[in-house]
Amino acid sequence: MSHDPNCIFCKIVAGQIPSKKVHEDGDILAFHDIQPWAPVHFLIIPKQHIVSMAQIGPEHAALMGKMMTLAPKLALEQGCRPYPEGGFRIMVNTGADGGQDVHHLHLHVIGGPRPWLKG
Ligand code: 5GP
Ligand code: ZN
């Protein structure tokens, strides 16, 4: 599994940096964002070091499907209210123009009672 020793999220996967986990399996880790901007704000990442959505190809379809499938389940577990009154936002910042700061692919899952919308 690819790993970048200088990557902050690879360090979280390796347990070198602590995180508040919400899910872990062989391929995927989900943990609370350290600077939440909504009542619910966690990140879903692949354990392997994939830089961004710009690197995603057909070989990643199953992994991406697994990450997307986890999002609604974890969102409810973390306190998002059910659809349609509740719901959540999934955001994947990609590259400089996409506002990506950490260059290890991550899905933001954001929700909870409004107002919290940013951008
Ligand atoms: P980006 O701007 O790359 O889409 O989002 C990166 C996110 O990672 C930010 O929301 C930031 O708060 C979060 N983050 C950065 N460093 C850490 C960390 O060490 N631990 C956790 N839990 N989140 C982090
Ligand atoms: Zn990484």
TrEMBL record:
Entries under InterPro entries matching the protein: Histidine_triad_CS (IPR019808), Histidine_triad_HIT (IPR001310), HIT-like (IPR011146), HIT-like_sf (IPR036265)
**Which Pfam families does the entry link to?**
DcpS_C (PF11969)
Query: Which Gene Ontology molecular-function terms are recorded?
Result: catalytic activity
> Which ranges belong to the motif Histidine triad motif?
104-108
**Which catalytic residues are annotated?**
H106 (tele-amp-histidine intermediate)
Where is coiled-coil annotated?
Answer: none
HIT domain mapped to chain residues? 8-119
Enumerate the PANTHER family for this protein.
HISTIDINE TRIAD HIT PROTEIN (PTHR23089)
Q: What is this protein called?
A: Histidine triad (HIT) protein
Native organism:
Hylemonella gracilis ATCC 19624
